Structure formats: C-alpha cells, structure tokens
Give the backbone structure.
Amino acid sequence: MQRVVVGGISGVGKTTLAKELARRLDLPYVDFDALFHGPGWTRRPTFEADVDEFLATDRWVTDSDGYQTYLGNRVFRRADTFVWLDYDRWFAEWRVVRRTIRRVARREELFNGNRERFLAAVTDPEHPVRWTWARHAERRRRNEAIAADPDFAHLSVVRLGSPRRTREWLAAL
C-alpha cells in the first residue's frame, strides 16, 4: 500500500482510519476537504491543482473519495488501494449526528476557519447530516461500480462492513 484512498459515506470514520494508516505506513496524509473548503465554506480556486500536486507524489493516503464532480476518477486511477468503509446507514447517520453536535457545542474549527452550525444540519441539504442519509445507497452503488470496473482492476479493494471488521483488518496489517 503506497497510494491509499479510504472511502465511504460521511460519519463512518474515514479520517480516523486514514490518519492511522498514514501513521502505521509512514505515508503523507491529506484531507481533500481542507483543500476544497475556503473561508465561508467556499470552494478554493486552487483545489484541483492542489489535489493533482498531491496525487503526483509516489506515496500518500487520503480519506477523500468524493469530489468526483471536480476530479473525475483521477484519485482512483492513481491509487493502488481502496479501503471502503461500507457501514450500515443507521450507524453512519448516528455517527455524523453525534459528530455534528460535538462540533457545534465545542465550536470546533474545521477547514480555513469554518465551523458547523446546528441550523445548517436542518436547512442545508448538503450538510453531512442530511447528505449521509439521502446519499447512502447512491454512494454504495458508486463504490460497488468502482470495485467492479475493469478500469480500476489495478486497485486492491478492501471492503469493510463494520467497525469491528475494520479494527481486525487494521490489527492484521
């Protein structure tokens, strides 16, 4: 594993796993959310160029399997391993709600000065709380298609269906 993308729906622990893989495998880690979101949750104009610069390196791990609207499939084309956290919809939703409540209560700064707002979880269809519920099945179908696509036959796909299975896999590395 030299170029690893950890994927799955919001709330399943992609960032936690990606950071742990980066530590264990001594790989640089980049969260594309930090490259994408500028102040006020605006898209940074250098996003694609920043991602391309990162992907051009020989060794890395990221937890950002999204952004296909902007990046197409270039992350998967460059990766050698796709670790897919394919957790239950209810589990993912519970985790993203809990995370949002924590972030709002603690006023945690996320990317470039941005903070989550509780009202956004109710009003913004792109907020992770609403997005996770609405897009869970769509994301699963997309990841199944990637795993089966001959264009991505070079990828070693690790599909993990529960946090327990993920801990076991990580312990076996």
Q: What stands out?
A: The domain at 3-172 is CATH 3.40.50.300 (Rossmann fold). The chain has a mean pLDDT of 93.
